[in-house]
Design a protein that fits this description.
Two copies of one chain form a homodimer. Chain A folds into two domains: 193 residues, Methanol Dehydrogenase, Chain A, CATH 2.140.10.20; 145 residues, YVTN repeat-like/Quinoprotein amine dehydrogenase (Methylamine Dehydrogenase, Chain H). Chain A is built from one helix and 35 strands. The longest helix of chain A has 11 residues. The first copy, chain A, is globular and about 55 Å long. In chain A, 3% of the residues lie in helices and 50% in strands. The N and C termini of chain A lie far apart (56 Å). Chains A and B meet through strand 1 and helix 1 of A and strand 1 and helix 1 of B.
Chain lengths: 389, 389
């Protein structure tokens, strides 16, 4: 059998049409909420590289990254779990693992992906390579006949996951050192209706916000024998019954210089808390009801976005001066913010203006506007190297 | 012109012999000190992927990473600056930029690579893509006729570099926002003979160790108008004139939970310092004279290696218990340690046993031994996302 030169050239070309080699340290994705797609972005070039479609219902979607930074695991609201290949810009694997899901996490060693589910309530743990189900942890409580919604799932050192059970009022820590034999430690009676949770950047403290009462529940994961305790008893809606347009996201809580910066619920304030004592030490007035309160990686600035009707603004708090030093208007309906790994830039999604805006965090200059359809969450691969994301 | 099938197959194969696509988030290099080479490693597979040779004199070599994680910049003792492509495992570029050099840094935005030089004394700044020289900052001092050795170079937010001048007794901060027009702020009379320096993980405090007197010099980079001040006046060789087998590396200093863990000079101790007050709050006895004192990324453990004659051991301090909880013997002449990004493993180089040993940090189990020729520094790509590395 012989081949003419033209066919040979075509064969050579198609055989080598693989994407170019490149590092993955400066890649990321932007969730396109309405269309069930993500765009792959390059934070060095400040450019969109391409779009991956077919991810299902991406309202309230979030993502974590494989240890090598090549794959994003995208958790959809419809229980879809999609492994996206950022280099080839295609879906590598996809499963629908629950009826109603609210995000996930990846284990410290990168080998396990966990999803927190509303329906059926519980946590499922998958092999990060194959998405094979390895462990199913139903959130049963009380007499064992009911299952609770799971919220606030976060990875913890030691290949553990911590999460909270909304109806049960419990915090669980699951040790997945043997992935098919999870060992679960349960903290009971931690408070009424935990609605979200986070782990501090050092992986030591797990904190759940309470919807059914004021205050937060805290577990020192280094000293679990001390059990859960209540902190910030005045944190919450309080006596005044303020209208709350959107519950803030706890995952965004910022810890910087020994202080945590928390979104007040219903109030136009950011609370400042001493992380040694977990006592409130100050309040900073801001433009609206805070949703995400996020520290620039060096901790010098805290960036805040807001619930309706102030959701087209972003404010910047200087942590040395402890006050707002800048107000920006990136576009209509700001849903999320993401810092570049060392914090020189921030990417902000403006859903209703269909764009992502990039700012220089040193001088607040607008560096780029990138088109995206109803953008919401922005997630860079540097999250793979962080605890509690 | 026609091609037979066998030739076609060979052509297709060679046309596509490019390295396979892969993420770079779990890559790294190990310096092979004696041979002027590095091995490229995969921290997920715990495997050596290949060797790159021809890097010159790699005694006391160090490395930083490009923003995308694809390229390592290796600083050799002979003034060589080599850009190594981890994916293709070859030298992408190499220059000899000084006669005697002692390491370097990469700017916050990843666009500038800086080298600190002994001879001629100063800092040179290069384009990270091309290694073109952009700025030359001679370390002239006094009447302008002499140049000082430069030590302790570190990146600082705002595309700045901080460094210390050994003979001059000065700390300089160079703002490279306009790379060809560096603006240098000089802190004079900071103390006698600064021999190394570091910036805290939040990029706020620059600290230089002093060889000519006891104590350290500290600059609050958020409040440079306050100037430099002395801290820990008893830190140093002190009155007793203990034999010092090797000056500790300051870059390894660990900051965890509001405390810094410092190698005592000449003493078999790790000093514990409160980073709010910069006062000493404790001392932890260890097996030998500490060289590197490094925090596991979550801050729960501090790992310590030692100068001769105790240089074949490593000890682990538990920061909750404030004492040594483990002693390991990875091999002869332990020179460096590197944690995986989220801290589940640590890689340790044992120079005289020609191996790198990987441990599980949770249970101290030995996971792997990898062959390397006279291994010294180990550097993972996750450094690209960290401040002050």
């Amino acid at each position: 059998m012989k081949f003419p030169t033209a066919i040979l050239a075509a064969l050579l070309l198609s055989a080598c049409a693989a994407p170019a080699l490149r590092g993955t340290g400066d890649l990321g994705i932007v969730i396109e909420r309405a269309g069930g797609s993500v765009v792959v972005v390059d934070s060095s070039a400040r450019a969109i590289l391409g779009r991956v479609e077919g991810l299902g219902d991406l309202s309230h979607a979030s993502a974590v990254y494989s240890r090598d930074g090549r794959y994003a695991y995208v958790f959809g609201r419809d229980g879809g779990l999609t492994k996206v290949d950022l280099l080839e810009r295609r879906i590598a694997r996809r499963i629908v693992q629950a009826g109603n899901s609210i995000g996930g996490a990846i284990s410290q060693d990168g080998r396990l992906v966990a999803s927190q589910n509303y329906e059926p309530g519980g946590v499922k743990v998958f092999d990060a390579d194959t998405l094979e189900l390895l462990a199913d942890i139903p959130a049963t409580f009380g007499d064992g006949s009911r299952r609770s919604k799971v919220v606030g799932l976060a990875d913890v050192p030691g290949n553990q996951f911590a999460f909270a059970l909304f109806e049960a009022g419990e915090i669980w820590v699951a040790d997945l050192s043997k992935p098919r034999e999870p060992k679960v430690t349960k903290f009971r009676n931690i408070g009424s209706q935990p609605y979200d949770g986070l782990v501090t950047p050092d992986g030591r403290h797990y904190i759940a916000g309470l919807f059914g009462e004021d205050g937060l529940a805290l577990v020192d994961l280094w000293q679990p024998e001390q059990g859960a305790r209540k902190i910030l008893a005045n944190y919450g809606k309080g006596q005044e019954k303020l209208p709350v347009f959107k519950m803030p996201h706890l995952r965004g809580w910022a810890v910087a210089g020994g202080r945590a910066y928390l979104p007040a619920i219903g109030r136009h304030e950011v609370l400042v808390v001493d992380t040694a004592t977990w006592q409130e030490v100050g309040r900073i007035p801001v433009k609206g009801q805070p949703v995400f309160v996020m520290a620039r990686p060096d901790g010098r600035q805290i960036w805040v976005n807001f619930a309706f009707p102030d959701y087209s603004h972003v404010q910047v708090i200087d942590t040395l001066e402890q006050k707002v030093v800048q107000t920006l208007s990136p576009g209509k309906a700001v849903l999320h913010m993401e810092f570049t790994p060392r914090g020189e830039h921030v990417w902000i999604s403006a859903r209703d203006d269909n764009r992502v805006v990039v700012y220089d965090t040193a001088n607040f200059a607008k560096l780029a506007e990138l088109p995206a359809q109803t953008p919401s969450g922005i997630f860079f691969t540097s999250r793979a190297a962080r605890i509690g994301f």
